[in-house]
Amino acid sequence: MRISIENFTKTFGDTTVIKDMSLEIRSGEMLALLGPSGCGKSTTLFAICGIHRMNGGRLLFGDKDVTRVSSQKRNVGVVFQNYALYPHMNVFDNIAFPLKVRKETRAEIDRKVQEIANLVHIGELLHRKPAQLSGGQQQRVALARALVREPDILLLDEPLANLDAKLRLEMRSEIRRIQQQTGITAVLVTHDQVEAMSMCDRIAIMDNGKIVQLSSPKEMYEDPTSDFVAGFLGNPPIAFLEGKAAGGGFRLANSEITLPVPSGITIPDHGAAMRFGIRPEFFQPNNGLKLNGKISFVETQGREELYDVMLENGAVLRSIQSQGAGHKLGDEVSWGIAEDRILAFGPDGRRL
């Protein structure tokens, strides 16, 4: 089911949260609404499911205008952060609830509940109450309840936020598997860029009620349109070097060091502020564009080690290297930047 949001505006009292936002979600894809708290992503999700009424614009499911259709009639499944299970009902009855509301036959309810429970791997838990389940099991129940009604669209509002790290990893894979297996159009709201990149076909990154970039995860990571997008994607995060345009190059702030600007980039006027963004995988001992510094932080991450290197002007670059690289806190190093991987941004934050 294709979703079209056209010139969406939402206000709360005198405050306009979203103004004239348009977005098309392709049929069968999983799209992430990603951004910091307060950017408007949950407001957009709640408008799609009908919890929030749109103050302006249109919402279409396929070719059908559902802008004024009640949430109960939109055939949308929603999974919330807090699961929202009925504590007095067992798992079977929680999943079956939307089917009972539809007054389906007992035989149909039994068949559908068993099928969806097997799909989300909780077939043996149908007799238990929510209090007897782990967080991951409760989330599977919530997912099954959303899917059992065979919705046209699945909406996920921070579905993994309450799970521990291991369960989040497991449920990321499970939700993606189920979405692909069912072919349902899905929208994921999250502030976690790892969730968005690992689970979704495309990401719409939002800031202050606007979509600032809409791309595949790979394209957004490699070709961000602004320093905001570049800084939001990547773990460990990108490091920025502040400076200004000088003599056809980039002079580091509080330094006499001038770096070449990668080919194909239009350099701003002399003296204009610039930023270089360097991701940790592109600041390595063997790269050619050398900078001297001192290791100011070391973090072992199992197979890899993360190093912070403080340059002579006080700026910090990060480097992610294979475990066992052997560098120590306080070591003086001369590591290099991969020149063709530098991301350059102008004074307004836009990509040059």
Helix tally?
Answer: 8
The stretches of 5 or more residues where confidence is low (pLDDT under 50) are none
| Chain oligomer state | single chain
Approximate shape:
globular
Strand element count: 20
- What separation lies between the terminal Cα atoms? 37 Å
Q: H/E element string?
A: EEEHEEEHHHEHEHEEHHEEEEEEEEEE
β-strand amount: 25-35%
Topology:
Layout: E1 3-12, E2 15-25, E3 30-34, H1 41-49, E4 56-61, E5 64-65, E6 76-79, H2 91-101, H3 106-119, H4 135-148, E7 153-157, H5 165-182, E8 185-190, H6 193-199, E9 202-207, E10 210-215, H7 217-222, H8 227-232, E11 239-246, E12 249-252, E13 258-260, E14 273-278, E15 283-284, E16 289-300, E17 304-311, E18 316-322, E19 332-337, E20 343-345
Parallel strand pairs: 3-8, 3-9, 6-7, 7-8
Antiparallel strand pairs: 1-2, 1-4, 4-5, 9-10, 11-12, 11-14, 12-13, 14-20, 15-19, 16-17, 16-19, 17-18
Helix pairs in contact: 2-3, 2-4, 3-4, 4-5
